Structure formats: structure tokens, C-alpha cells
Amino acid sequence: MELLKNKIRDDGIVLSENVLKVDSFLNHQMDPELMKEIGKEFAGRFRDEPVTKVLTIESSGIGPGIMTALYLGVPLIFARKKKSLTLTEDLLTAPVYSFTKQEQYEIAVSAKFLDSDDHILVIDDFLANGQAAIGLINVIKEAEAKLAGVGIVIEKGFQEGGSILRERGVRVESLAILESLENNQIVFSEKEVNINE
Ligand code: G4P
Q: Angle at Cα 34 formed by Cα 152 and Cα 3, nearest 5°?
């Protein structure tokens, strides 16, 4: 997605060989026009799947997730990372280990929003080690719902999340794949096409 790549080139800041700061348009301040185009792009890519709901994780997945849901005409659910006062009914939960933060947390979705007839599209802002996506997939399994695929705004191709998911047969669509952040340079990978296609 050229618009996204240009935004990353213009406004992304390489913090280290592993971390790209995109807080001016993606995960702190958000660019609504860009989110709209991201939503349209994901909706187009997954139009052939019978998606009934989009599932993401708070907080930075919500922007791209809601725009994708809007273009697909389905609801968005976001998994919570912290216990909520109003999250009192039956919960579907999964542990997620964050390598970045070196801590484990539990994600939770109210069981009433997912059932076995659902085809769920997972959307998230970053794919690094894949632990958040795997946690969301485990929640979908717990609900006995079907996984339509995973849509990622920025995949860090030099970390293992993408290959773990694809090796499991998951359809992963990433709008930009970073091949490397070495020497302060943002290098994109050209293999954006899903290997299962
Ligand atoms: P994983 O789920 O793929 O295993 O990823 P990891 O634990 O490494 O990532 C944890 C958090 O760090 C996630 O956000 C993820 O979006 C973010 N993250 C990972 N790599 C980068 C990066 O290169 N740049 C930026 N800006 N963020 C990155 P989170 O802490 O859960 O926060 P949020 O969704 O509430 O914003």
C-alpha cells in the first residue's frame, strides 16, 4: 500500500534496529484519512471471505479495526487487556506474552459477542512476534468461531510473527512489511502477497 509506505518513509522514526516509531499517525496521534484508506484496503483484500465481525486488541488496533469494520459493514470487537468494570458476563480469555515488555497479560472478550457461526477477521497495527495475534486466534477458537484471516498494518518481517502464522495456514495480509531497520534505514520487503494464495 503505497500511501502507507510513503507515510512511514516520511514520518516514521527508527528508534533502534527493532523498533519503528509511528506515533504521529498510527498509534498515538492517528491520521483519520490514512485510517480510512487502510480500512478500505483491508475490506477489499478480505471481501472474498464471509466476514461477520472484526476483532482487534486495545488500543492501537481500534483505529484500523473500526475503519475495516465500517467498509465491511460488520461490527468491531476489541479485546481488553485490563479488567473492565462492565465486563462482568462470561468471558473468553487467552494469555499473551509481550516480548517487548517482557510481561504476560490476559486478553478478554465477552462471550456474548462471538459465537460458532462467526467468521472473524483479526486486525492489528503491528505484527512483531505474533503473540497478540495468536492470543486473539485462541479467543476465536474458544468461541468455536472461524478465522477469516489476519490483517496487519505494519509487519516486522525480521521478527517471527508472520512466519509463525503463515506456517499455521493463517491467511495474513500485511499492508507494509519491514525487511529491516538497520543503519537507521527503513527497508520494505516486496513479498507482501500472501503465500497461501
Ligand atoms: P507481538 O504481539 O507481535 O508478539 O508483539 P510485542 O509483544 O513485541 O508488541 C507489544 C506491543 O508493542 C504492541 O503494542 C505492538 O503494537 C507494539 N510494537 C511492536 N513492535 C513495534 C514497533 O516497532 N513500533 C511500535 N511503535 N510499536 C511496536 P501494545 O503495547 O500492546 O500497545 P497498544 O496497542 O496499546 O498501542
A: 80
Tell which one of 8, 13, 24, 100 to mutate to probe ligand 1, the residue whose CB is within 8 A of the most ligand atoms. 100
Burial class (CB in 10 A: 0-12, 13-18, 19+), 11: middle
Q: Give me the amino acid identity at 186.
A: I
Q: Measured on CA atoms in the order 131, 167, 197, 179, is the torsion positive or negative?
A: positive
Q: What is the pLDDT of residues 47-77, one digit of tens each?
A: 999 999 999 999 999 999 999 999 999 999 9
135-to-55, 84, 109, 169, 190 alpha-carbon distances in Å = 11, 18, 11, 16, 28
> What pTM, to 2 d.p., does this model score?
0.94
The percentage of residues in the chain with a pLDDT greater than 90, rounded to a whole number, is 90
| Domains detected in the chain | 2-188 (3.40.50.2020)
Pick the residue whose CA is nearest to atom 13 on ligand 1.
126
Distances (CA, A) of 171 to 33, 67, 160: 26, 20, 15
Q: Give exposure, 161-173, as e/b (b: 16+ Cβ within 10 Å).
A: bbebbbeeebbbb
C-alpha of residue 117 to centroid of ligand 1, in Å: 30
Distance CA(166)–CA(89), nearest Å, equals: 33
